[in-house]
Write a structure and sequence with these properties.
about 325 residues; alpha/beta; Spore Coat Polysaccharide Biosynthesis Protein SpsA, Chain A; nine-stranded mixed β-sheet; about 20% strand
Length: about 325
């Protein structure tokens, strides 16, 4: 049995998947779960004898595909990768941290194409009601250095120091497989993408596990691949919908209300500003749907049940 396996989730990743796989060490157990790519992604994968391909006939979403991939391996440590990530070094360092008592996962230092650390992205604290309220109101974009955003995105942290962190980026995240099983995998209600990794790590923390940031493990991350695969309009619905679901799962009734009210106001502001900038009424239609999502969530007294991997049943 290999000590480490890698699971890569693809969807129309023809340009990214080759360099991603080429950067992985030889002899590693590698599984690619493809979510119904319509480009040449599968052709890039099928010729590789050392890669096991799971080709889904429809886009099951990141969480479901991650559960499929992790269920298909037997290694105690599983590196979950986005296809736009190229591992540079430090795979064994991640595994060593995951082997420590009560460590559920470990994240690598992510650098951009310019080689600079992706501060504010590679690890963050868990979202709080104020952090998400500032986000949906656009305050973090207008005033990125505000105290709430600096704390949430760990903007003052040293990217060269190993540390316990709350939420490393899911783009390059090693997970202890026994913890994944214990928690019931990723919640597949978060689909097609966004907040599924944050929810998983939040549940791990609630179960008493630690998560490590390991700067000796480094990976190049192009960024934006997942976002680019989602059509404009649907992008906002998925992102805000999953944000609201995360708030429903993990915040108090008061905290959920703060986020919903902020999103109701924020959707009006964005609808007006984007309509003016684009000279199109399409943003009005999109944000009207976001508005309705927030109102419905505000009126719901109990969150929806979790939908986890079919390998563990639904709960």
């Amino acid at each position: 049995m290999n000590r480490i396996a890698a699971v890569v989730i693809t969807h129309n990743s023809e340009r990214e998947i080759g360099p991603c796989l080429d950067a992985l060490p030889r002899g590693l157990q590698v599984v690619v779960v493809d979510n119904a790519s319509q480009d040449g992604t599968l052709a890039e994968i099928v010729g590789r004898s050392d890669v096991h391909l799971i080709a889904n006939p429809w886009n099951r979403g990141f969480a479901a595909a991650a559960n499929q991939g992790i269920a298909a391996v037997d290694s105690p440590c599983v590196l979950l990768l986005n296809p736009d990530v190229e591992l540079i070094e430090g795979l064994d360092s991640l595994a060593a941290e995951c082997a420590q008592p009560k460590v559920a996962a470990a994240g690598a230092k992510l650098v951009g194409r310019d080689g600079r650390p992706q501060k504010g992205f590679m690890f963050r604290r868990f979202p709080t009601p104020p952090a998400l309220a500032f986000e949906v109101l656009g305050l973090n974009r207008l005033w990125p250095g505000n105290p709430v955003n600096r704390r949430y995105r760990c903007l003052d942290a040293d990217p060269d120091l190993a540390a316990d962190v709350e939420q490393p980026a899911g783009a390059c995240l090693m997970i202890r497989r026994t913890v994944w099983r214990e928690l019931g995998g990723f919640d597949e209600a978060f689909r097609p993408v966004w907040f599924e990794d944050v929810d998983f790590l939040k549940r791990a923390a609630a179960a008493g596990y630690r998560v490590r940031f390991v700067p000796s493990a480094t990976a190049k991350h192009a960024g934006g691949h997942s976002v680019a695969q989602v059509p404009s309009g649907l992008r906002q619905l998925y992102w805000y919908g999953n944000l609201l679901m995360y708030a429903a799962r993990h915040f108090s009734r008061t905290g959920r209300s703060v986020v919903c009210l902020a999103l109701i106001l924020g959707s009006v502001i964005r609808a007006i500003s984007e309509t003016v900038c684009s000279l199109s009424l399409r943003p009005v239609s999109t944000y009207a749907q976001v508005f309705r999502l927030a109102v419905v969530q505000l009126l719901i007294t109990r969150p929806e049940p979790r939908i986890v991997s079919s390998a563990f049943g639904t709960r």
